Amino acid sequence: MSSDARAAADREDAAPQSAQVPVNTRRLEIAKKQLARNGVPLAIVLTFVVFSVLRPDSFFTELTIKSILRDCVPLVIVSLGITTVLAMNDYDLSVGGLISLSATIVVLLLSSAHVGMNYIAAIFLTIAIGALLGLVNGVLVAYVLLPSFILTIASGTFFAGLALEIVDSQSVFEGIPESFIDLASGTRFGFSHQVYIGLGVLILAHLFMRHTEYGRYMYAIGGNPEAARLSGVRVRMLRATGFGIVGATAAIAGILINSQAGAANPNTGLGLLLPAYAAAFLGSSMFRVGVFTPIGTALGALYLQMIGTGLTILSLTGPVVQMIQGGILAAAVLVSRLTRSDEHRP
Amino acid sequence: MQGRDTREPIVDVRRVVKRFPGVVALAGVDMRIGRGEIVGLVGKNGAGKSSLIKVIAGAERPDEGELRVDGRPPPHGYAPHVAHRLGLAFVHQELGNFPTLSVAENVALGTSYPRRLRLFVAQKELRRRVAAVFDELQADIDAGAPMSELTVVEQRLVMIARALYHDARVLFLDEPSVSLTIEEIGHLHAIVRQLKERGQSIVYVSHRLNEIVSLTDRVVVMQDGRVMLARATQEVDERALVDAIAGSRDARDLTSSPAWSDRPATPILRVRELRRPPLVHDVSFDLHEGEILGLAGLVGAGRTEVVRMLFGADSPSGGTIEVNGAPVRFRSPVDAIRRGIALLPEDRRHEGLVLDFTARENITLASLRHHRRNRLLPFPSRRSERMAATSIAKRLAIPERGVDEDVRRLSGGTQQKVVLAKWLERQGAVFIFDEPTQGVDVGAKAELFSLIQELVSHGRGAIVISSDFAELVQICNRVVALREGRVSGVLEAPNITEDALLRLAYDDSATPATSVLPSRAVLSETSS
């Protein structure tokens, strides 16, 4: 009771809110809610229709659609990784650097001019290294209690620098086996291998986040870490694990990007950082608003890729594409805010 | 009340009634605060002190009656910032200060700082002005020091200085002496007396009756939303105050729960000399099978801190805990849960529930492993979860629709049941309830009590913390009273009375518990 008094007396605006909401306002609320919940799927369909109408010969073609599906995969995978940390209210901004670093590592391991490892072994080793580096971030955040935002900026910068350093800021072309390039470029049943890999990761992520105990615990941590802890959830362990997952997905994304390029470019990852967050936030404005879900995230990433490809086909330049993507993210956040605002009323 | 003030009171509360859903917080309260007097305000938790202060502060609007400041009704749209402008200042126990700013900046916050070139804060001038206030208070505090370097008492003085700097005429000090040492309290009292000399008025809220008696001019005792006693302090003594606080209500003639006699040899929980300064110093007690043990005490007596240690949420700096005769060391709640200890925290919104989860998800959060489709794989079966949640919801009378509803949308009583359901699902051995009835309506309260009673009938034990001692009298077999981190007495049914608990909980040092209640207070061997 006395703590209430303090809180209330501290509050500057204690003007009582009327409980009666006019019918019109309520209708508006419902409309807002619907818009927020279905905004992104609706926007995907609308955008698709608009591009198809504007460029029926170049956009609405099997080739373009397949290439959108293929090209979005690295983004989808990284975004799925950060979805796990976002669900726990953490941030991992090191993904850009991690992608670059693991992309460089895998090529060095594979290239006959360097280590010359078996390509399956190289891939798994790279994923393991990525997961380990992510886990280092995670341990520092969850056990040493460093703020994840700033720590991962720091470690991401370090990883990006390390990627450049180990190849002397050069791209590596020579000695890359065909089998590795085939990983991304090869097709099966008409679709790139990448599409199947992306789908596989999506299914795993969905099962993990939405159907296992650990996923449930992660959402509980995001909702109320103290309540989760007092319910016996291993909060620190799971937070650290989330960063490990990010590391593994960043490594997979890096591998795919380089497999597609057939070379290691130590700068590959940096451009994916912001789109990955954009995808996750776009996705969180679907279904249960404000909840990061793997399927929502994947749709968000798909949408960003579609816009990117579509705008390129419309002959818009890279910078304009970026501006439009930024605008879309701002709009999505705004829309999901509309429904959240009612929770802050007394 | 006394009509002794010839001058007009600054604050005049007349027949104020304030109702909240299901409870009358203020049932026609009168209170006057005259110029240059120290008014003590005492009463149990929930007696209505906070509501009264909220009304005066403009944080709550009275349903009936009126508030006058300087003989006039307060301006339309009365709110805390208006109260502040009228010269009413509220200094809370939890210090609302800004640790990264300097002391001077804290003191002057909210006024316009002195400027240089109309733009830059003139730090020197600001410090000089603030230092002048400290001089008046005879407080030796460096106005230029960062706030974070100050001790608790210094911070409290800064808050008082802040009120003076803002030209406050009436200071409401809410439990200003909590967690201060005796010397510090002496210093605080000297300052309060000095303020009075200067013509300031002080409303001093405290649970410590000896300081009320020694410091104040007038004392107002509240109980159940009414003023039970309002008199010049010299006309009363601590004894009379305790009587007024407890109330002599024959109507509420609650008998404590009996029917618990043969105590098993090994307690399910044995606590010895548990310590975690500064709030818990030396606490020992046992909990037996089938027992409901109450922990009584005032806010800050260390009740919550004790149970958090029992649950592994905080680690003790000394002492031992034994579960079923085996010593345990809990490094985290995970360990305690494994030993069958369940905590229903006081602040359920912040510690008990994930508000964005459904009731079902909350109920199964601590026991999700039991719902695996396959024992070896971590995939919970929603069907199994729903069945368990629904059946437990039925047992606790949680509305069926509520199970799949976000907990955020459920009522306080239902939310509390969801927290309970979570632990019932888990099948614990020791259930700890920290203020289980807070924000729960009367009907739900009775239900909750019978659930607790049913719970312990199956070889379990429960520890209940409540600030409403009448509740403890009603349901506990034994009550351990804490005062300032130490056990001040242990009462056993049927000798538990609200009156005795109040005496043990309040700082009634002139009359130690044993001598007041030789026949009632059974000091157990554990409190030595």
Keyword list:
heterodimer, A: 346 residues, mainly alpha, two-stranded antiparallel ribbon, 2 strands, 73% helix, globular, disordered C terminus, B: 528 residues, alpha/beta, Rossmann fold, 3 domains, six-stranded mixed β-sheet, 18 helices, disordered N terminus
Shape of chain B: globular
- The residue fraction in helices of chain B comes out at 25-40%
Give the radius of gyration of chain A: 22 Å
Unreliable stretches of chain B (pLDDT < 50, length at least 5) are: 1-6, 249-260, 510-528
> How many helices of chain B does DSSP assign?
18
- The strand order across the widest sheet of chain A is 1-2
Shape, per Cα inertia axes of chain A: globular
Largest sheet entry of chain B: 6 strands, mixed
Give the percentage of residues in beta strands of chain A.
under 5%
What's the N-to-C terminus distance of chain A? 17 Å
CA radius of gyration of chain B is 25 Å
Overall pLDDT confidence of chain A? 84
CATH-derived topology of the largest domain in chain B: Rossmann fold
Q: Describe the largest sheet of chain A.
A: 2 strands, antiparallel
The end-to-end span of chain B amounts to 45 Å
Biggest β-sheet: strands ordered side by side in the sheet of chain B = 5-8-9-3-10-11
Count of discrete domains of chain B:
3
Structural class of the secondary elements of chain B?
Answer: alpha/beta
Q: How many beta strands in the DSSP annotation of chain A?
A: 2
What is the chains' assembly state? Answer: heterodimer
Could you explain the architecture of this structure?
The complex is a heterodimer of chains A (346) and B (528). Chain A is mainly alpha-helical and 346 residues long. Chain A has a domain at 65-269. Chain A is built from 15 helices and 2 strands. Chain A has helices at 2-10, 23-54, 62-71, 73-87, 95-110, 119-142, 148-166, 178-185, 193-211, 213-223, 225-230, 235-261, 273-284, 294-313, 318-340, and strands at residues 187-188, 191-192. Chain A has a two-stranded antiparallel ribbon with strand order 1-2. In chain A, helix 5 runs antiparallel to helix 6 (119-142). Chain A is globular and about 70 Å long. In chain B, the strands form 5 sheets. Chain B has a 6-stranded mixed β-sheet with strand order 5-8-9-3-10-11, with helices on both faces. Chain B has a 6-stranded mixed β-sheet with strand order 17-18-19-14-20-21, with helices on both faces. Chain B is built from 18 helices and 21 strands. Chain B has helices spanning 49-57, 80-85, 103-108, 123-137, 152-165, 182-197, 209-215, 238-246, 303-310, 333-338, 348-352, 359-363, 382-395, 412-426, 442-456, 469-475, 498-505, 513-516, and strands spanning 11-20, 23-33, 38-43, 64-69, 88-91, 115-116, 120-121, 170-174, 201-205, 218-223, 226-232, 269-276, 280-287, 292-296, 318-323, 326-328, 341-344, 430-434, 461-465, 478-483, 486-492. Chain B has 3 domains: 11-246, Rossmann fold (3-Layer(aba) Sandwich), CATH 3.40.50; 256-340 and 428-528, Rossmann fold, CATH 3.40.50.300; 355-425, no CATH class. The longest helix of chain B is centred in the middle third of the chain and has 16 residues, at 182-197. Chain B has 528 residues and is α/β, with parallel strands linked by helices. The model of chain B is unreliable at 1-6, 249-260 and 510-528 (pLDDT under 50). In chain B, helix 8 (238-246) crosses helix 17 (498-505) and helix 13 (382-395) packs across helix 14. The chains are: A mainly alpha (346), B alpha/beta (528). At the A-B interface, helix 1, helix 10 and helix 11 of A face helix 1, helix 10 and helix 11 of B.
